[in-house]
Amino acid sequence: LQLDGVPMFGEDGSFKGMLFLLQNITAIRRLENMRSEFVANVSHELKTPVAAVKGFAETLLGGGVKDEETARSFLQIIYDESERLNRLISDILDLSKIESRRSPMDYAPVHMATFCASILDTMATVAEKKRIALHGDIPEELFIEADEDKLRQILINLLSNAISYTQDGGKVELNVREIQDAEGTEKILIHVTDTGIGIPKKDQPRIFERFYRVDKARSRSSGGTGLGLSIVKHLVELHHGEISVESELGIGTTFTVELPMLQD
Ligand code: ADP
Questions:
Q1: ipTM greater than 0.90, yes or no?
Q2: How many CB atoms lie within 10 A of CB 203?
Q3: Which of 91, 201, 207, 210 to mutate to test the pocket of ligand 1 (most atoms within 8 A of CB)?
Q4: What's the 224 CA to ligand 1 centre distance in angstroms?
Q5: Closest-lying ligand 1 atom to the alpha carbon of residue 224
Q6: What are the C-alpha distances in Å from 218 to residues 29, 32, 52, 208, 226?
Q7: In angstroms, what CA-CA distances link 67 with 44, 64, 71?
Q8: Which residues sit with their C-beta closer than 6 Å to ligand 1?
Q9: Of 215, 217, 219, 236, which has the fewest CB atoms closer than 10 Å, so is most exposed?
């Protein structure tokens, strides 16, 4: 709490009393702390790939690497780390745009069957590389009111995670259902289910935090930035929806997104 006092004077200049303002500044301070923590995290995340690019480039420039195969593998690392930097920068920009509300909602009716089919099509090549069976089950007549670009990003992030964290030969499914809540409001449930490695119980509440990863090494090797799920959570909330996760180690994971069918 912060206490500020101002003396009050009458028209004749006589002292009338003090005006005190008692403010709860914990919320403001918490926000400031979160912001500086975010800047520190961002700097750390950006420095790692930059250090790798610089280090390997220096070694190549130094002329110490004589055989072509080693030189090529160093160039490949430089290339991969630049790609990672690119992804990080675009995720950080997305997140900051969403968080600062500079990204207004552009609602329009979305035909879920057509929309999901095009997303599954986009993801098919990535799934095929790992021989993962990718299927969808979407009711034919279902329309929802949504911001199509943002909804696409939600589904692409969840599906790419499902594919990344599932072993070769596994299964990933996208299911959409229509439900009514206790008040009779129409909603849709989107389930993204995989037969992958699962998420330990203790990590489940934290995976939506920025830069949180269960296994840093695995996330890095799969090209992850640690920002995907926190972007998803924000985008779901912008649609006035909710996201939850159920997962069992070694069995698989289901992310459930609940969205209102219509926006008021
Ligand atoms: P990343 O870029 O590391 O994938 P995300 O924010 O998308 O970051 O996810 C956070 C963490 O949650 C991941 O690092 C991973 O440990 C875990 N995770 C997300 N989706 C899945 C999934 N389908 N199966 C298992 N673990 C997952």
A1: yes
A2: 14
A3: 207
A4: 8
A5: 2
A6: 35, 31, 18, 17, 11
A7: 33, 9, 7
A8: 161-162, 165, 194, 196-199, 207, 212-215, 219, 224-230, 253
A9: 217
- Residue tagged 């008021």 (tokens): 264
pLDDT tens across 7-28, in order?
Answer: 888 888 888 888 888 777 777 7
Q: How many residues does the chain have?
A: 264
Give dist(CA 166, CA 125) in Å, integer.
15
Distance 55 CA to ligand 1 centre (A): 28
- 210-221 burial code (b ≥16 CB/10 A, e <16): bbbbbeeeebee
Position 102 confidence tier, pLDDT thresholds 50, 70, 90: confident
- Report pLDDT digits (tens) over 38-95: 888 888 889 989 999 999 999 999 998 899 999 999 999 999 999 999 999 999 999 8
In the reported structure, the alpha carbon of residue 237 is separated from the centroid of ligand 1 by a whole-number distance in angstroms of 19
